[in-house]
């Protein structure tokens, strides 16, 4: 069968597609967010719930989104419209998520740049001291400056259209990041007192299970795999018809989960080692990686250099994701507005920087501002991951399950061969996922988390 539809801007190989999608998926979500959630929500039980969700729910949703993209050859808003005019609103809701995520993502990206400069200037010892991180993020100016640097670098790359170059570099660096994370993880568990933490991380303790574990794991899964926000639809639209969607999804998921797993293994046991298994230390949330890793590096032979290399790699992973986020936002507006792409890029950069400021100040001078009992950054994180993503996922499941029917997805997947887990998708999308999502949403909304 001849197929002309996806050759224009498409990927030229299946691996090219997998790497690009994995580049978007693997980012701060894996290295910064996963470990602190795992520490907070019960360790092994969180890991178990996360993996179970990834191989069932995550798999079904990612296959569905990529198939929708490839079938229509369009990005989210237009893809839903092409399938059924009445449902283009799902595309709009999906597109709103990257707009909320991007500014606060850049705040964390800024923290990474800060730590990179700390290691490059040989201040690793200071960074390992208690209170260093807190005094950094609570300062009024400095974290904002680093946030702006991160946004600026992202914007320059998007403006110059050199994503491809960055993606190439990170394709090579990503395996290095994984290897370094594995090495640090192995070192971490040999620290005095870390073994107990390692057990906490990998051994599910069912007494720690609660609906909170599921809500947090679910939000994390969407976030980490860039699901329910139109991203995978866009990537799917570039995919060639002859490439196998199912095996690609397996590869993206395995890679994404492996990076998260090793990031957790590098951080969670070390928290035990340095705090003597203190529950408060496990609960500290967003700062966990920045507080714990410098302490690990400090005890390591050559830790200063390893720290610098590590933060370079994390920065690269963060940049490939932030580029993909910004690119998505820019293309949403370029589709709608008759304005030059460059102008939109600059506008997105300035507005995002302005929106990022409160998120940053929320850890310092504005720490008394609490939204739904959360700091400003945590509030954005909660609204996007625990409310909007489940809503989009629910609408997508209803749309695919009852309007276009799972058959449409199956046919698209089968264009490139056998669809082994067809039944899983057929059961998950119309029946299991919606029920699950409603429960998750209700518990998020009534403030269970
Ligand atoms: N998945 C990315 C991570 O793990 C974060 C992310 C969320 C993202 N939504 C995205 C990246 C959209 C690119 C595009 O860090």
Task: Describe the protein's architecture and organization.
The protein is built from 19 helices and no strands. By secondary structure, the chain is mainly α. It has one domain: Orthogonal Bundle (Hydantoin permease), CATH 1.10.4160.10. Residues 1-8 have low confidence and may be disordered. The site of tryptophan has 17 residues, from α1, α2, α5, α11 and α16.
What would CATH call the architecture? Answer: Orthogonal Bundle
Radius of gyration: 21 Å
Mean pLDDT figure: 92
CATH topology value: Hydantoin permease
Q: Which ligands accompany this protein? A: tryptophan
Distance between the termini: 51 Å
Number of strands: 0
The level of helicity is: over 70%
Discrete helix count = 19
Relative strand content: under 5%
Helices, strands, pairings?
Blueprint: H1 14-25, H2 28-40, H3 44-72, H4 76-83, H5 88-120, H6 124-127, H7 132-137, H8 142-160, H9 163-190, H10 194-202, H11 211-224, H12 231-237, H13 245-275, H14 279-282, H15 288-299, H16 303-336, H17 341-361, H18 376-414, H19 422-445
Distinctive features:
single chain; 449 residues; mainly alpha; Hydantoin permease; 19 helices; 77% helix; 0% strand; binds tryptophan
Summarize the structure.
This protein has helices at residues 14-25, 28-40, 44-72, 76-83, 88-120, 124-127, 132-137, 142-160, 163-190, 194-202, 211-224, 231-237, 245-275, 279-282, 288-299, 303-336, 341-361, 376-414, 422-445. With 449 residues, the chain is an all-alpha fold. The protein binds tryptophan.
């Amino acid at each position: 069968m001849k197929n002309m539809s996806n050759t224009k801007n498409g990927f030229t190989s299946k691996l090219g597609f997998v790497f690009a999608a994995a580049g978007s998926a693997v980012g701060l979500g894996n290295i910064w967010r996963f470990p602190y959630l795992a520490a907070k929500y019960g360790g092994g039980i969180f890991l178990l719930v996360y993996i179970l969700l990834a191989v069932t729910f995550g798999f079904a949703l990612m296959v569905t989104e990529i198939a929708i993209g490839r079938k229509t050859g369009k990005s989210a808003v237009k893809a839903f419209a092409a399938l059924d005019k009445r449902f283009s609103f799902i595309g709009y809701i999906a597109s709103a998520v990257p707009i909320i995520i991007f500014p606060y993502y850049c705040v964390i990206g800024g923290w990474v740049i800060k730590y990179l400069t700390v290691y490059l200037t040989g201040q690793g010892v200071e960074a390992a001291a208690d209170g260093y991180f807190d005094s950094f993020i609570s300062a009024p100016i400095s974290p904002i400056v680093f946030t702006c640097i991160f946004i600026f670098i992202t914007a320059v790359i998007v403006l110059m259209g050199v994503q491809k170059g960055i993606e190439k570099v990170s394709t090579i660096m990503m395996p290095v990041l994984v290897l370094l994370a594995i090495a640090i993880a192995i070192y971490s568990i040999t620290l005095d007192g870390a073994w107990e933490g390692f057990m906490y991380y990998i051994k599910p303790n069912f007494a720690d299970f609660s609906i909170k574990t599921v809500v947090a794991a679910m939000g994390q899964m969407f976030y980490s795999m860039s699901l329910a926000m139109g991203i995978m639809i866009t990537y799917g639209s570039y995919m060639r018809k002859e490439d196998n969607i199912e095996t690609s999804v397996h590869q993206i998921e395995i890679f994404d989960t492996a990076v998260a797993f090793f990031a957790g293994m590098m951080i969670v046991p070390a928290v035990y080692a340095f705090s003597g298994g203190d529950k408060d230390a496990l609960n500290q949330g967003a700062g966990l990686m920045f507080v714990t890793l410098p302490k690990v590096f400090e005890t390591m032979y050559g830790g200063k250099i390893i720290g610098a290399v590590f933060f370079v790699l994390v920065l690269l992973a963060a940049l490939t994701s932030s580029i993909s986020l910004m690119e998505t936002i820019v293309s949403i507006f370029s589709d709608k507005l008759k304005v030059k792409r460059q102008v939109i890029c600059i506008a997105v950069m300035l507005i995002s920087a302005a929106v990022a400021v409160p998120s940053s100040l929320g850890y310092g001078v504005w720490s008394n501002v609490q939204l739904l009992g959360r700091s400003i950054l945590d509030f954005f994180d909660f609204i996007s991951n625990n409310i909007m993503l489940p809503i989009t996922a629910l609408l997508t499941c209803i749309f695919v399950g009852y309007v276009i029917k799972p058959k449409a997805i199956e046919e698209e997947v089968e264009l490139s061969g056998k669809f082994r887990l067809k039944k899983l998708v057929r059961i998950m999308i119309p029946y299991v996922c919606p029920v699950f999502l409603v429960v998750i949403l209700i518990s998020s909304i009534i403030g269970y988390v």
